Amino acid sequence: MKIRVGDNVIVQTGKDRGKSGIVSKIYLAQEKVLVEGINAKTKHVKGRDGVPGDRTEIFVPIHVSNVAVVDPKSGGPSRVGYLVDAKGAKTRIAKKSGQAITKAVAKKEAPKKEASKKEVKKIKA
After folding, report:
1. 3-class DSSP state of 8
2. CB-count exposure of residue 78 (10 Å: 0-12, 13-18, 19+)
3. What one-character DSSP code corresponds to residue 66?
4. Is the pLDDT of residue 112 over 80?
5. Which residues pair with 59 in a beta bridge?
6. What's the whole-model pTM score?
7. Of 2-16, 24-38, 105-119, the least confident
8. Which domains are delineated in the chain?
């Protein structure tokens, strides 16, 4: 799959056609991508223990064939190609303009740190 987390993509088919967003997660086995702000669904949550029910908006994955990377020059959809330089380094390029696609920046969350016994004692004191 040539689309990476952090890529700016544009939707080519479906109800969100023409909208663009950033890829936040990739599901390789299903060949789907989760794009922020695209393919919204309404989830109905049942009320429990005095908490009222609610309808929340969630974003569901979209098939990778329905999105294309945004060309950095024209702003339209483009396919992704690779250019190998003399040193052997691969660079992703937009096929439409030939310009390099900026490296995808993954949003990595810091791992959750569990409080040690000493820190728990300090907090309680």
Report:
1. strand
2. buried
3. G
4. no
5. 40
6. 0.72
7. 105-119
8. 8-124 (2.30.30.30)
